[in-house]
Amino acid sequence: MVGAGLGGLTATLFLARQGISVLGVAKHAGTSPNPRATGQTNRTMEIFRRCGVADEVLRGSEGVASGIVVKVAESLRGRVFHTIVHEEDEVDVGLSPEAFGMAGQDYVEPVLLAAARGHGAEVRFGTELTSVRQDASGVTAELLDRASGEAFRVRADYLVAADGHRSFVRESLGIGRQGRGALSHHVGVVFDADMGDRLAADKGTLFYLQNPEFTGVFMMTNTERRNVFAVEYHPERGESPADFPAERCRELLRVATDEPDLEPDILEITSWEMAAWLSDRFRAGRVFLVGDAAKVTPPTGGLGGNTAVGDGYDIAWKLAAVLRGEAGPGLLDSYEAERRPYARHIIDASFANYVERLAPHLAGPDVPEPVDHLRLIFGYRCRSGAVLIEDDDPAELENPLEPSGRPGFRAPHVTVLHDGAATSTVDLVRDWTLITLNRAVWADAPVEVPELADPTGELAKRYGIGPDGASLIRPDGVIAWRTTQRPTAPAATVTSVLNRVKAHS
Ligand SMILES: Cc1cc2nc3c(=O)[nH]c(=O)nc-3n(C[C@H](O)[C@H](O)[C@H](O)COP(=O)(O)OP(=O)(O)OC[C@H]3O[C@@H](n4cnc5c(N)ncnc54)[C@H](O)[C@@H]3O)c2cc1C
Question: What Pfam families does the annotation carry (predicted)?
């Protein structure tokens, strides 16, 4: 595993939990000291539940997890141009048993790291990948211990490249990328200050600021009094990060907060580029690109970190299944087939958000239509050999509030009775699982077949399986196959389906 950010650590943790031997290396000295990707979607929290860290991540959201306020405004108390999420909006619309999280990357990464190490993963910081080669049987990586200067070589079955947007692995393999490229340049300021009643109580606050003096973003973090402020600078006008020393950042912060006497304690000033890139391939042989190495999305929408987690989990469960001999190597083809089109949706939607929130001057016919956040998070349809799609509907997104239950989509969250207790269907899936209302018929299928009752009739409605049919759900909660029929040979039917979707020859 190259990289110990959100993508690499999620994959490392899940592989280690599955008993796979994994070595993680990261060039940096430790995890991200900067809150960067703040906020976990409910879908990310479902993944963290499967990785055993959801409760701890949620603890990092205490005090801010009751909602979020998102506005486009001149300043924190100034004219509001557009409210994206109101104070009173219900953010949790009942699509998941998991709450969303509001923890920063500087909190989440150490949680993932500790859990991964707890499951036996070795993660070495200050260790840089300097060369990668592969042949038919494995991958050879040359590594450099940056402190001692010692070089060493590692041989592995597979390599996951979660090495960030400048991915050395992607460049070494000659994988190109397409897209709008650099959109804007930012100076990011992490600071502590008492914001008093300028922020909504008990809610996350995110302001996109279009001020006559600057364009920027203000975001609070899960650490008390800690906030992040990013302001655009313009290299084409000769500006550079050096033009933003602490005193100028303080002045801009006073304008942004409408507080002329604000005395922010500035902890860090960094610079970064907002960009949109999609790699031409997410895989080369035994090497898989994950997170920012595979795609870079504008952070407008908060999906860069969330999709890094999603990529890491996706390749990890598939690699674990192959390495444990439970699936054929063909299952790995589904990683790029499913995640690359999804990344395109994420980038397009985030770019549309960017134009609306920060760059209205770019508005025009080539800006993609905005996409509803819920569709992006819950309504994407996977298309690959690992799902058996039988309809010819080309749509890649659907409204998850009215799920069709068709293969390729996420298995909807429905509260059912399981062993007499109210349980989410999402929580019933930990491995390959058959959801049916007639367990007696399907009990011999070679997967989990939970006993359940559907007192509200929601399961029948949302899964579309009738009284005797069934849905086969993958370990990642995606519907692999569905039937409304009562089979003559249920176990053989499911075995045959499993062989197809797990690419067992
Ligand atoms: C200012 C800012 C704000 C953001 N806000 C949000 C947000 O609100 N929500 C959101 O979802 N996303 C946000 N993002 C994006 C998010 O931070 C990234 O998408 C996420 O960090 C990507 O994770 P990753 O694991 O792919 O890569 P990274 O976190 O970049 O990690 C890369 C890893 O690779 C290692 N590495 C690199 N090269 C090598 C090498 N040669 N050898 C060994 N190791 C190497 C590094 O040491 C590091 O461990 C933001 C980003 C920025 C910059």
Answer: FAD_binding_3 (PF01494), Rng_hyd_C (PF21274)
